[in-house]
Amino acid sequence: MTDCDLDTSVPDWVIDHPETLAVFEQLKIDCSCGGKSLAYLCREQRLDEKMVLSLLHRCLETAPESGENRATG
What we know:
Blueprint: H1 10-16, H2 21-26, H3 38-44, H4 49-62
């Protein structure tokens, strides 16, 4: 489904899957975190890493395909 995981930086999550921005905002995870990994930010905020990853994957499963709408660079 996605190459993004706990080792992926939050900005990369949002770049690859813009629909996940809502999840990061809901959890108050800073998306401009200087490239820190999702796992690092979860530990810093004392969030359960597996729960956050599950929410992100659920978001991706329910979101309409956004790949067709992206501009190619």
